[in-house]
Amino acid sequence: MGRLWLHRYVRFVAVAAAILITAGGAVTSTGSGLSVPDWPNTYGYSMITFPPSMMVGGIFYEHGHRLIATTVGLLTIGLAVWLARAEPREWVRRLGWLALGAVVLQGLLGGITVLYFLPAPVSIGHAGLAHLFFTLIVCLGVLTSPGWRRSYGRSEPPEDRTLLRLALLAPAAVYAQILLGAVMRHTGAGLAIPDFPLAFGHLVPPSWSAAIGIHFAHRVGAAVVTVIVFAAASRALAHHWARTELTRPAMLLVGLLLLQIGLGAWTVLSGKHVTVNTAHVTAGSLVLATAAVLALRAHRSRFPDAAEASGRAGTGAEVLP
Amino acid sequence: MQHRTLWAFASILVLAAAAACGGGSDAPAEAPAEPAAPAFDPATAGNVTGSIMFEGEAPAAEMIRMNSDPVCVKEATDTETDYYVVGDGGGLGNVFVYVKSGLEGSFPPASDTLILDQKGCRYTPHVFGIQVGQTLQIVNSDPTLHNIHATPANNPEFNAGQPIQGMTLDRTFDNVEIMVPFKCDVHGWMNAYVGVLDHPFFAVSGSDGAFDISGLPPGTYEIEAWHEELGTQTQSVTVAEGGTADVSFTFSVG
After folding, report:
1. How far is Cα B224 from Cα B249, in angstroms, rounded to an integer?
2. How does pLDDT run across A257-313, given as a tens digit for each residue?
3. Minimum-distance CB partner of A43 among B3, B71, B145
4. What domains does chain B contain, in order, with CATH numbers?
């Protein structure tokens, strides 16, 4: 019962982290990153005592982002402590502390980027770590789930080397693409190529600059990610149709990827509409997390607790709630 | 494996952050040397006058939606964009005109303090000039909070909050720069530009397009006109002793 509540808590933290990423995306999409010049204070007030009536204009986004980030930070402390007290697997407990370290580092990067006027390397690091943090929390959700503990009712590991490789490659490719997107976002290259799907009316841009290169690389990256994700998903769907723990994330991954491509195109065509641009950030994180879930589940048999879980699955010793 | 990847990434981020800490300092500038007196007889000074004209149809001003801050909605008296200030006679306002080259000697910074006011959630003036070392006082006259964020290329960037009505902030610029942009990140529509020069020979055209640069030593100069949307134009002009040289610029879209 206690472990089930821990799993539910992790899911709650994951939802909070997704909201935080959305809030962070809104800060950059609205250009509000420096609307609060000081940090960790807000216009001389402590973060908690800053009057809500003063949350106007860009401050609404920036200070709101800080408040949500603080909440997620506190939730992550609770998660790490809960895991330390209730989780029997040491490596999972360590992941809890890693998540806490990541959220602390993330807060520091957020502060540094404000105090130093949004230097691109720090802002890109802040964006990149945000997606890693969210994915780590989602992974903890998988690792603490009842299905994981009973190896999804399977005693036989899937020895499909192609799937195993593609399932690892997919989140790596998605993350590389997210980093490219962060570079594009924080170097102001989001509209360097103003048309879509062509680039200045051509398949390849007729002229080049650093911004055009970054933007075009993000588009090429999207094509590469699409091929890899479709390969991984189709492998799971075609060869492991009976394994719902693989087919569900595979189908969700394809759906989210299509949504993400559409949002990316819409972002360009709408001239970086704030809502669309922000949704593109959130959907990118969801694609990464879903790819990570597929990878974890595909590689279930390789984790330290696999043998124990397989034994339980084989004997039916543990029944899902 | 994932542990190692995450730790490696975290280490890279820490190093990147440490590297970033090396820049962006806001250290006070060294005290400027005592300025030399003008190396010419003021009795021989002349003027450059003229007008900035706009040719064609200027893009219409757009309404600014200020509803992200109710105080701005209440206080604002000017809610239209001012990228193109075109008078009845076709004169173009808010053009910064200055002597780009041809001057000799050095000129002391003006002793008066310039005011950049934040009023009605707009900057007043929108375009202006200042000398290196001259004091700029930034005032918040609004009953709402602003941040004043200068994004220069040749001077230190700064971003300061002014949460209380009546707050002031004094700043100087150390280096010549055309132009230093100001913006308020709270109210994204607020922007202003200042031209920083090491001499006092500049002007901003009025809504009729007219400008007057006075007190110039006799000589031949390159005069540049800068507009925030239309770019720059330059012309050469010769000022005789006690004379007035006329120069006009014509801008158009496209």
Report:
1. 9
2. 999 999 999 999 999 999 999 999 999 999 999 999 999 999 998 898 877 765 555
3. B145
4. 42-103+206-254 (2.60.40.1120), 108-198 (2.60.40.420)
The pLDDT, as a whole number, for residue A311 is 58
Inter-chain residue contact B68 with A33, CB threshold 8 Å: no
Give the pair of three-digit tokens for residue A247.
């087919």
Phi, psi angle pair for B36, to nearest 5°: -80, 155
User: What is the complex's ipTM, to 2 decimals?
Assistant: 0.82
Residue A62 catalytic? yes
- Looking at the complex, report in whole angstroms how far the Cα of residue B169 sits from the nearest Cα belonging to chain A: 14
> In a mutagenesis test of the A interface, which of B1, B4, B13 is the best target, namely the one with the most A β-carbons within 10 Å?
B13
Which residues have CB under 8 Å from B205's CB, separation 6+? B51, B52, B91, B92, B93, B94, B95, B97, B211, B225
3-state secondary structure of B80: strand
Q: Chain A: nearest CA to B146, how far in angstroms?
A: 8
**Strand order from edge to edge, sheet including B177-183:** B127-131, B191-197, B177-183, B146-150, B158-162
Cβ of B147 and A36 within 8 Å? Answer: yes
